[in-house]
Amino acid sequence: MRVIVFFDLPTETSEDKREYRKFRKFLLGNGFLMMQQSVYSKLVLNATAANAVTALVRGNCPDVGLVQMLTVTEKQYNNIELVIGENYSEVVNSTDKLVIL
């Protein structure tokens, strides 16, 4: 499963910018990978782990702005269609249980 976090935070004041950096650093520190600007995803093992991750994100959200989360299965995640641009991920995206590099 994947937990995807979408956020739109204000960056008008220095306090807003600090909160933005703090939230982004929190996501990166907890294993989220940037899919595109303000969209981060994390691979989790099952629904129980997804619930724990969403609770952790809820507890670390800034007071202002918009933060949304979506949990999808790997099969749903692999149906993402790249319309324009390039995928810059260094992470191996596979539904296989064992990947040998």
Could you give a quick summary of the protein structure above?
By secondary structure, the chain is α+β, with helices and mostly antiparallel strands.
How would you portray this structure in words?
- The chain is of the alpha+beta class and 101 residues long.
- The protein has one domain: Alpha-Beta Plaits (2-Layer Sandwich).
- 33% of the residues lie in helices and 23% in strands.
- The chain has three helices and four strands.
- It has a four-stranded antiparallel beta sheet.
- A hairpin with a 2-residue loop joins strand 2 (33-36) and strand 3 (39-43).
- The radius of gyration is 15 Å and the shape is globular.
* Portion of residues within helices: 25-40%
Structural class: alpha+beta
Q: Give the helix tally.
A: 3
The mean pLDDT is 88
Distance between the termini: 22 Å
Major sheet attributes: 4 strands, antiparallel
Q: Could you name the CATH class?
A: Alpha Beta
Low-confidence stretches: none
What is the overall silhouette?
globular
CATH topology name:
Alpha-Beta Plaits
Alpha carbon gyration radius: 15 Å
Domain unit count: 1
